[in-house]
Structures are given as structure tokens and as C-alpha cells.
Amino acid sequence: MPKNCKCAKPLGIKVRCWWLLLILFFLMGLAIFIFYSLDQQASWPMNPWRIRSLSNQSYIDVTTSVDSYFVEYPHPYQFLMDEPNRCQEESPFLVLIIPVEPHNQEARNIIRNTWGKETMVLGHVVSHYFLLGLSTEGYGTKAFQEELLLESQRHHDILQSNFVDSYKNLTIKTMVMFEWLSTHCSNTSYAMKIDSDIFLNVQKLVDLLLKAPRQHYMTGHVD
Ligand SMILES: *[C@@H]1O[C@H](CO)[C@@H](O)[C@H](O)[C@H]1NC(C)=O
Ligand SMILES: *[C@@H]1O[C@H](CO)[C@@H](O)[C@H](O)[C@H]1NC(C)=O
Ligand SMILES: *[C@@H]1O[C@H](CO)[C@@H](O)[C@H](O)[C@H]1NC(C)=O
To answer: Would you say the CB of residue 161 lies under 6 angstroms from ligand 3?
Structure first.
């Protein structure tokens, strides 16, 4: 405490101490600034540039998806291979849906032998299903379909719908997934869509979900 500052008097803040107050206000302002710029980058009022570029981005995204994907779905696709009762019988806590290309049996086997093997995690049932469309190569030839049927009978984890499985049709795949979940698996606490080239830490996920809300909850990687 500097000698010429007599702040010790009860209640009285002497005019000489004005600079102390100034420093205090400055520090508070700095703290508020840091809080906002860390927490709400997009809505920080002093950064109009960012707001403008964000709204432009979402404008562009919406129009593109209407043009090239939205019209694809309203169509009654049917399951050629299904597990209609498994979910009801197992009553899982977490269902993992893995979109995969029909020909990628290698990825399916790797998952079955690694993270897909974990069916009871922290006392909770976890089950996985592979979601496929029709093979583009040969348009689901009889021989390939027979091979796939054997795989399905062996593992009981294949859901195949009769739309053409292509990159552009991934929107259809996602909608078909929601349809399957709501008709066959509405009782599960959580469902997750996960790509076939990802390694999933099932323990960590279940641990996270056990602490998460049971309703109106959605999570994922937020950029
Ligand atoms: C942002 O959107 C406006 C229309 O809302 C448009 O005129 C402008 O060209 C867009 N900017 C970019 C970089 O796309
Ligand atoms: C949903 O699960 C609960 C137990 O978690 C069970 O009692 C109930 O019968 C199930 N309902 C259906 C429709 O499967
Ligand atoms: C998407 O699936 C539909 C239904 O099978 C098919 O008619 C269409 O050609 C597919 N689109 C692409 C780009 O593969």
C-alpha cells in the first residue's frame, strides 16, 4: 500500500485512491472480455465480421441441402435383411448404428472383433447394427446377396434396405436409420450413429451417457 493513500479510514475512499478504483474497473472489464471471447465467440457483440460470415455459411448450407438431398427421401424403402425383434428382446441402454458399404465386410469383421464385441458395459447392454443399402457394384447381384445373407444369419447384426448404397444417398441411409430406431428400438435410452472407420471407446461413452440427461439430449463433436 503506497504511503500517500489513506484507504484505511472506515468507509471513506479518499480521492487520492481513484487510481486503485480505475485499476479495479480495468481488471473487471478484462475479465468480462476474456469470458465472452472464450465462451461465446459467435455472439460477441464486438465481432460483427464473424456473425456475418456465420450467417452466410448457414444460408449456403440450407440451400444446398434443399437442392441436392431433400427431395431424395419420401419413398417407401423396405428392409431386405432385418432384425425386427432383437432390440425389444435385448432392451439395450445404447444402440450403435454403423452405416457401412455392402462390400466392406472387412470393416464389419474388424468392428465385431474389437469395440463391437463389448455388449455389456458398466452393467448396461450395448448392441450394434450395420446399416447397408443395395450394392452399387452389380446392383446387389444374387451371389453377393446370398453371401450377405449368410453373414447376417451368422451375426444377426445386419440391416439392409433396398435403396442404392452410394455417397449421395447417405441422407436416405440416415432417414432409414431413424425410421428403424423409432419402429424397432424406441425403448432404448440412447442411439448413436457411428462411421465404420472410427474406433469407439465404448466404456467412456457409456460412462458419459450415464451422467447425461435421458431426454432431449444430443451430443457429438462440436467444432
Ligand atoms: C453473403 O450473403 C449475401 C446475401 O445474404 C451475399 O450477397 C454475399 O455475396 C454473401 N457473401 C459470401 C462471401 O458468400
Ligand atoms: C422397455 O424397457 C423396460 C425396461 O427397461 C421394459 O419394462 C418394457 O417392457 C420395455 N418396453 C417395450 C415396449 O419393449
Ligand atoms: C439413390 O437411391 C435411389 C433408390 O434406390 C436410386 O434410384 C438412386 O439412383 C440413388 N442415387 C444415387 C446417386 O446413387
So the answer is: no
